[in-house]
Design a protein that fits this description.
Layout: H1 8-16, H2 27-31, H3 40-48, H4 62-65, E1 66-68, E2 78-80, E3 86-92, E4 98-101, E5 108-110, H5 118-122, E6 128-137, E7 147-152, H6 160-173, E8 180-181, E9 188-190, E10 202-204, E11 208-210, H7 213-216, E12 229-236, H8 237-242, H9 245-252, E13 258-266, E14 269-283
Parallel strand pairs: 3-6, 7-12
Antiparallel strand pairs: 1-2, 2-3, 4-11, 5-6, 6-7, 8-9, 9-10, 12-14, 13-14
Helix pairs in contact: 1-9
Length: 284
């Protein structure tokens, strides 16, 4: 097992010690440790992997923690060093649908994924990474973050091949359309669709989405609507046990963090269940 400079357990521990979740007021601290890539929420989340995001007690720069810190219009938003998690961060203004746009749901991110850039592929030697999703509830970019929900793709999604097969099947079904051109991660583009010679092109692309994790995990998490800030994290028991012992103890020995073990539906076997660890804390 390779010990990474930082991981999700470090981030949860750091956030439990954070006192200010206002993105405008923490901007100065955050900017000192992370790159300018991404929106304020993305930078705040990345900073939490480096230290406590509302203080100068960040003892690592983002270059020490991340091998990749995102690229506009391409997933993921970050990747941890030493083949650590790939991280996708989504901002919502309520408990609403999460939009992935053209990206397919993922349990893992592979280096041959058509959506990622050469920069992401070549940042270090790697073949695949666990996919970590982070959903931030915030009304405006500079408003306080109301909640952060961390979960791994393998807790709610089927294996990547399932979605890839459906995408390819839909794409193949469109091949008979006259003048369609098909490349990349779109279903295709019908060129000069009206034959007026004015380049009227019709793009056909998937718009993928899923329910907010508060809805998906409603039977195992109960958010406090009156809380100033709440954090939840859901991961398979096997994932938690894969972290170094000292990282596990950051949470199990932290009195501010609640830990529960639950059973949830196995996405690859809907008739079965998987054991997950749920970590949470609330600021009132």
């Amino acid at each position: 097992m390779v010990d990474m400079p930082s991981n999700l357990l470090n981030a949860i521990d750091n956030l439990s010690k954070c006192k200010n979740f206002d993105l405008a007021k923490t901007k100065g601290y955050v900017s000192n440790v992370v790159s300018e890539q991404g929106n304020p929420l993305e930078k705040f989340v990345r900073a939490s992997f480096c230290g406590i995001p509302d203080t100068k007690r960040n003892n690592m720069s983002s270059d020490d923690v991340f091998c990749f810190q995102g690229q506009k219009n391409h997933p993921p938003d970050a990747m941890l060093r030493n083949a650590g998690d790939a991280i996708e961060i989504k901002k919502v203004e309520g408990i609403s649908t999460i939009h992935l746009n053209s990206s397919l749901p993922k349990q893992r991110l592979y280096d041959d994924d058509k959506m990622i850039t050469n920069k992401a592929v070549e940042c270090e030697e790697w073949k695949s990474r666990d996919m970590l999703y982070v959903i931030g509830h915030i009304k405006k970019d500079t408003s306080p973050v109301r909640s952060l929900f961390f979960f791994y793709g393998d807790c709610i999604f089927k294996r990547n091949e399932y979605y890839n097969d459906i995408f390819e099947s839909a794409k193949n079904s469109l091949k008979g359309i006259d003048k369609i051109q098909q490349t990349g991660n779109e279903y295709g583009t019908i060129k000069d669709v009206d034959e007026l010679g004015i380049n009227t092109d019709m793009r056909l692309r998937p718009l993928n989405s899923f329910d907010h994790p508060f809805k998906i995990f409603s039977e195992i998490v109960q958010p406090d609507k009156n809380a100033v800030f709440s954090l939840f994290a859901v991961m398979r028991r096997s994932k938690f046990e894969s972290f170094p012992d000292h990282a596990q103890h950051l949470l199990t020995d932290n009195p501010a963090i609640e830990r529960t073990t639950k059973q949830i539906r196995d996405p690859d076997n809907p008739g079965g269940e998987i054991r997950v660890e749920v970590f949470s804390f609330t600021k009132t």
